[in-house]
Amino acid sequence: MQSKAETIGGLPVRAPRLTGFDWRGYIVYLFFTAVLLFFAVTIGDKGFLTVPNLFNIARNTAMIAVIAVAMTFVISAGELDLSVGSTAALSALVAALVIQAGFGMVAGVTAALGAGLLVGLVNGLFVTGLAIPSFLVTLGMMQFVRGLDMRLTYTNPVPVADNTFNGIFGKGYLFGIPSLLVWSVAAVALGHVVLRYTPFGRQVLATGGNRVAAAYSGIRVNRTKLYCFLLSGAAAALAGLLFTGMMSTARYNYGTGIELAAIAAVILGGTSLFGGRGTIIGTFVGALLIGTINNGLIIMGLDVSEQNMVAGAIIILAVAFGKKPAR
Amino acid sequence: MQSKAETIGGLPVRAPRLTGFDWRGYIVYLFFTAVLLFFAVTIGDKGFLTVPNLFNIARNTAMIAVIAVAMTFVISAGELDLSVGSTAALSALVAALVIQAGFGMVAGVTAALGAGLLVGLVNGLFVTGLAIPSFLVTLGMMQFVRGLDMRLTYTNPVPVADNTFNGIFGKGYLFGIPSLLVWSVAAVALGHVVLRYTPFGRQVLATGGNRVAAAYSGIRVNRTKLYCFLLSGAAAALAGLLFTGMMSTARYNYGTGIELAAIAAVILGGTSLFGGRGTIIGTFVGALLIGTINNGLIIMGLDVSEQNMVAGAIIILAVAFGKKPAR
Amino acid sequence: MTNLLELRDIEKSFATIPVLRRASFELRSGEVHALMGGNGAGKSTLMKILTGVYTKDGGSLVFDGREVELSGPRDAERLGIAMIFQEFSLIPTLTVAQNIFLHHEPRAGGFLNDAEAERRAAGILSDLGEDIDPRALVETLSVGACQMVEIAKALSKNARVLIMDEPTSSLSEAEARTLFSLVRKLKSEGISIVYISHRMAEIFEICDRITVMRDGHDALTRSTGEVTMQQLIEAMLGEGVEASMQYQARPISATAATVLEVENLTLEEKVVDASFTIRAGEIVGLAGLTASGRTEIAEAIFGLRRIRSGEVRVDGKPVRGTDQAIAAGVALVPENRRTQGLVLEHSMHDNMVLPNLARFTRGLFVRDGAGRRAANDAIARLKIRTDGPDKVVGLLSGGNQQKIVLAKWLERRPRLLILDEPTIGVDIGAKSDLVEIIREIAEAGTAVLVISSEFEELLAMSDRVLVLHDGRLIKELEREEIATEEVLHHAIQG
Amino acid sequence: QDGSNIGDVDHPLWYQPPSAETLELAKIDDLSDTVVSGGPRGEEGVLASTLNITEEQAQKIRDGKFTAAISMGWLGDDWATQQLIGLNETFEKLGIEVVAETNANWDDAKQLADLDAIAVLKPDLVVSIPLNTQTTASAFQSLAEAGSEIVFIDQAADGMDAPGDYAGVVSSDNLALGMYLADLLAERNGGTGEVGAMYFANDFYVTNLRYIGFVARLMAKYPDMKLIAAAGHDDPNKGQQVAQAMIARYPAMQGLYASWSIPAMGAVAAAQSYGRTPQDLPIVNENFDQIVAADMANDGFIAGISSQRPYDQGVAEATIGALALIGEDVPDYVVVPPLKVSRDNLPASYETIYRLPLPEQMAANLGQ
Ligand SMILES: Nc1ncnc2c1ncn2[C@@H]1O[C@H](COP(=O)(O)OP(=O)(O)OP(=O)(O)O)[C@@H](O)[C@H]1O
Ligand SMILES: Nc1ncnc2c1ncn2[C@@H]1O[C@H](COP(=O)(O)OP(=O)(O)OP(=O)(O)O)[C@@H](O)[C@H]1O
Ligand SMILES: O[C@@H]1[C@H](O)[C@H](O)CO[C@@H]1O
Ligand SMILES: [Mg+2]
Ligand SMILES: [Mg+2]
Fold first, then answer.
1. Can you give the residue ranges of the ABC transporter domain (chain C) (predicted)?
2. How many whole angstroms from C261 Cα to the centroid of ligand 2?
């Protein structure tokens, strides 16, 4: 009779016990495993289980994963960032334009990161300096930057001919591993260590958990939030580079809708939407779960309407069986 | 020296004093007025100030407004509903199919409301019964229902030939007022009274303000939340009927993205994203602000990229000057 | 006299951990019955079962001679049971009046009648001697005012049984006095009251009977006249334990460095022209009525409030803003443990590490092991009742949460320690331990500023007492001048 | 001819003025035997009507037990639906199994992921409309390398050549489509007056051509018809909003090209709200679907439709794909000419496009 959730008038008031095996906390892993197994059995012979296909899943998940890692920080700190998609496109265009202009890859990447950091900085300053809700700031920013993206090249795509760039950020391999997978695993590993084992990570969680108490404990909560937005801007920039490398082209419409997918990955992974609790590994598995479902359902031959229905149902079920939040 | 927000380490810890005129709380009204004035001066002679154009703004805002009214309840209760857009499309299709099949308008409208309420019920039961975050439940539901919408008519549009229906829900007028405006004003008036002056409204605010304390006070917080989701489903259904009436057609992709627009209207209006505080009138003005900006910028002759940039900037500014939330 | 209600052999576990073990409790009509016990003994839990907030695992509840089952707060309300919760049940985003009448609002034709609610709320509050605007949002109120609203809310229900869970913990002397006369008045109207408190004096003053709980079981029930303080302490804490709150004179070297200098401090709110100093090793008490500005002074020193004029110096260096204050070694134990003191959903060791991140970091990484060890030390030293350092602190009893707030800051070994109402809700055993610990800290060279509304505690610790009245420092009492609580009492009235 | 009737409207961000060749072709009154748009690489268009599969070839295809996958860029209009019907019917007839059908919903990154998943199934044939010719190129290239035959709808991916990398492209004649739109407006207003154009703002090859075709025809053939307003939408559902603003600002506008059917119907709603009549504000568009057909039958604002033949396109795509699978030579650029639809030829056009008689309600409204 382990982990019976305690309730107050029907409300769960406590997380399940920390003793014993708390399988609900690991639901995203279980679900991911179950989905993988299901596809392996049903469509394993249709190519699902091949290494290239599994790499495909990882590759297609890379941008969501990178953005979701930073989003885990933002959400853990009690905020949201909806501007990541259009920021990714902005960085993609900036990088491509700089490279096209002949300044080389390093300049392109630097400029792209600069663009992402700038958006993050503005988001962060508005949210912390003026204390306005990040949902709205970043919603406005999402729209503003998308307009900028369109304007920048009059919606024309910008091809990138630099094969080193395209290799590193998109099509290449490192020791036989697709570079997109390398990037996302690197982002996940770094994010995990920072959130879990460094003072900054602690400050993020405390800020999201109780801003006032964190401030009384001497944490600079505004600075902490600002850093989270910078991180998110940088991650969006990296995602933009990955989009560009993968497609050898930058386009103004990259990343449309990626914010919701990333947030879904974060929350599926077990991070609380209300801040104070976050897990990067969970986020990654959440992103992989989404990617695997999308891939597997196509291979199963479901049409688009069925794909939507099944993917939607799986998200609901995954959380339904998942850990009940303490709040 | 009125309304100085109290701060701790730069954090607002309490709302401004209640004494003095707190203009920041009314920012959305000021902003709306300012935007109207600006357009009146710059493009008043270009057709902006004509009655049909102003009616058009109201008409275009109707669906967002109706959904945003219910969303104000959902957000005030501390939840979110992302499934409203695809639910609107579902209800639109259901109504059109029932009418097309010859069962008449009343049956069509009833069936549409039934569909909306059903989605709301499922959302509500998952969120309250299983205590899972509404963001994810309704995100999954949004996708599931969109798949269903596609399936229902294999993405084919369903025309509605019933002119009474099209008049009541779309193109008609009541005493010279476009029926879409009548519907949205009715929704706003009802929502305002219910949220502000009835026990249910109070329970919603209490639930969102502090769920545990509300439960201690004997409020059935789960039931309250469930009702909010039902309301949201019903409002989505109404919006679907309005879409259908306006276009004399139902389509599977109605309402795409309307959830974000509605949430933006709610928060612009001054409702706290963290629950416990809500204002329906503010929501309506927030929706009108969005609608006016969209209309005015097109009349000004801005292209899509510029429209995006300006609209995004206005949202950011409106909140930047707006009331600082206590949390 | 007949029993109005009886709780018989109540059992309750959270997850698998038993909290109540065959706990019994009887309440007669028209009596004031004290419920005492150490932190985590199960008092609040037992009373929450009586109000339907929790459901019991076993045992029975007899009300008015009939056995009843409560399936929620509404059932209890129907029986006429109301409770003043220790962890307030207020909605921060609603007004005072809306909170007081939450879920039993006055109506007019089906609609809410806020004007009537405000009128009635004003009436109840003025009976309580409080000057709180019924239209103010609760989130703008001080802890003391919230406590009053919580009390008013319970009173508004015209209950037959009123449970008060540490109602005076955030109140001043004067407010507590008003509350006591109210309790007597209610009693004379035949209302039965369960009174939970850690303050011995008030228990002996207003209660007819006392039940002591220990480890989830009722250990003793007696009439107030038939029991001594020492007997109560032993019932609560065990044989031979002494909980003494006596001042012990400590020689403070005349050459000790001056740590804190506050010079002509005037703030945006309340505080006007305050000047004082504290030397290393000295414990200075800050006394005053509610809203006299004590918290403001504390927060200003810690850099949380804007200074209009004047200066705060630590070790001779001017200090402004939290960053500088923390760098200078100032620590503030804030007055509200839930909103300011703890991240409730985090574990104890995470909370412990928070203000001490630098100390618990080696290289780039936080040393969780060390944090856990520190937490375990604190659990032992402050006798914190918990399953362990990993338990989410929001699930602990109020007093235990307060001990963690203290532990968190003591761990810091600050140069200047400011304690704002440090023992709210802490049981007598722990309180005397705390006094001991604070003395040790002072002896090690820390300057200490203590704000407390509890005279006993203030007197037990302070080497000197500053008296604040309406934002101004009106007196400075040397130790010799304050022999009794009366002296302090008079000084505070201004 | 000098283009003065195009005035100084704000053209789309991607706008390129019509080429001299296009302007020349735009002068030809009857375009039904002319292929106006060649392929983007200068391919010569071959009319779809010339394609044919012999019974012998059909048997060979059936024996091959081939599989096919379809990667669409969007769904939800009759164009997509009829394409799919044409494709699926033809595949079924030829015993080709459709193993996957995807919808990228206008997002080329999603299309890339879709193509990746399709690649896993190793279909013998892939039919797809690349949302962007550059960004999706790598995926199509690797499909080709893995041995799939590819038929493109509308445009081929960059860096690929027929017949080595793909079988062919099937498209509507998009410049001609745009030109017909100008013709249809002129039929209503006698080739004079002020008109507006509402375009799809995003850079999308085929829709860009239509706008350019429309402009070219005005320049070449209707010097008295003046383009006074142009505005874009980036989402078909926003058509109504954009049209409203255009009508508010240019009340003199006497005709409107409204791109697809969804924005066109939005424009109809907008025109109604301004109390305009079908006579003083005719609206033309480029999707022949049930909604605009019904409005036209009802004597509504929709004055003309420059229709593609999506079903025929689907059939043509399946046909060249199937032929390529058995090693036959197929043309690299197949063109399906548009169909000019107005009230007069509505029933016949409906039968041509939908292979069904005009629905009763519409016929009744037409007064037939
Ligand atoms: N919801 C809960 N989940 C888990 N444990 C709980 C919960 N509520 C209370 N407990 C535990 O039950 C024990 C008794 O708590 P309770 O609040 O009844 O103590 P108390 O006697 O009121 O103490 P205090 O004097 O500190 O208020 C504590 O150890 C506490 O940690
Ligand atoms: N009317 C009010 N509006 C806003 N904040 C208030 C109000 N009254 C008190 N506060 C705040 O509540 C906190 C408690 O301060 P208070 O003035 O009560 O000081 P105190 O002397 O420490 O008294 P207490 O014994 O209540 O702690 C302070 O942060 C103060 O700013
Ligand atoms: O024309 C079709 C569709 O109908 C849509 O108009 C986009 O371009 C395609 O080629
Ligand atoms: Mg307690
Ligand atoms: Mg205080």
1. 5-240, 254-491
2. 23
CB C209 within 8 A of CB C224: yes
- Report residue C23: phi and psi, to 5°: -85, 130
State how far Cα A211 lies from the chain centre.
24
| Angstroms from A142 CA to nearest CA on chain D | 15
D87-104: b or e for each residue (b if 16 or more CB lie within 10 Å)? Answer: bbebbeebebebbbbbbb
Angle CA(B121)–CA(B122)–CA(B123) in degrees, nearest 5?
90
Q: Ligand 2 atom 26: the closest Cα is on which residue?
A: C290
The residue nearest atom 24 of ligand 1, judged by CA position, is C39
Strands (E), chain D: 46-47, 67-72, 97-103, 125-128, 149-153, 168-172, 193-200, 225-233, 256-257, 283-285, 302-307, 333-336, 339-341
Which of A2, A216, A276 is closest, CB to CB, to C334?
A216
Which of C324, C354, C362, C401 would you mutate first to test chain A, the one with the most A CBs within 10 A?
A: C354
Inter-residue contact D278 to D312 (CB < 8 Å):
no
Please list the pLDDT of chain C residue by residue as tens digits (494 residues). 588 999 999 999 987 889 999 999 999 999 999 999 999 999 999 999 999 999 999 999 999 999 999 998 989 999 999 999 887 789 988 999 999 999 999 999 889 999 999 999 999 999 888 889 999 999 888 778 888 899 999 999 888 999 999 998 888 778 888 889 989 999 999 999 999 999 888 999 999 999 999 999 999 999 999 999 889 999 998 877 776 777 777 777 778 899 999 999 999 888 999 999 999 999 999 998 877 889 999 999 999 888 999 999 999 999 988 888 988 999 999 988 888 999 988 999 999 998 888 888 888 898 888 889 999 999 998 889 888 899 899 888 888 999 899 898 887 788 999 999 998 888 888 888 888 888 888 998 999 999 998 888 888 899 999 999 989 999 899 888 887 777 888 887 76
B11/A211 touch (CB, cutoff 8 Å), yes or no: yes
Q: Which of residues 116-135 of A touch B (CB under 8 A)?
A: 126, 128, 130-133, 135
Alpha helices in chain B (DSSP H): 27-43, 51-76, 84-100, 104-124, 134-152, 163-166, 179-197, 199-209, 211-216, 221-247, 258-268, 280-299, 304-320
Cα-trace Rg, chain C? 23
Contact predicate C487/C467, CB 8 Å:
no
Whether residue C19 has its Cβ less than 6 Å from ligand 1: yes
Hey, are the CB atoms on B252 and D81 less than 8 Å from each other?
Answer: no
Q: Quick one: which of C99, B23, B298 has its CA closest to D230?
A: B298
Cα–Cα distance for residue pair A39/A36, rounded to 1 Å: 5
Contact C91, B278 (CB under 8 A): no
Contacts of D99 in chain A (CB under 8 A): 301
Contact predicate A263/A189, CB 8 Å: no
Q: How far is CA C203 from CA A111, C42, C183, C225, C453, in A?
A: 70, 18, 12, 11, 17
Q: Residue B240 region, left (φ>0) first, then alpha (ψ -120 to 50), else beta?
A: alpha
Nearest-5° Cα angle at C288, C282 to C294: 70
Spatial neighbors of D56 by CB under 8 A, at least 6 apart, are none
Hey, whose CA ends up nearest to atom 9 of ligand 3? Answer: D206
Q: Are B and C touching by the rule of 3+ CB pairs within 8 Å?
A: yes
Look up the pTM and report it. 0.84
Question: Does C have 3 or more CB contacts under 8 Å with A?
Answer: yes
Which residues, other chains included, contact C226 with Cβ-Cβ below 8 Å and sequence gap of 6+? Answer: none
Three-state DSSP state, A127: helix
CA B208 to chain centre: 18
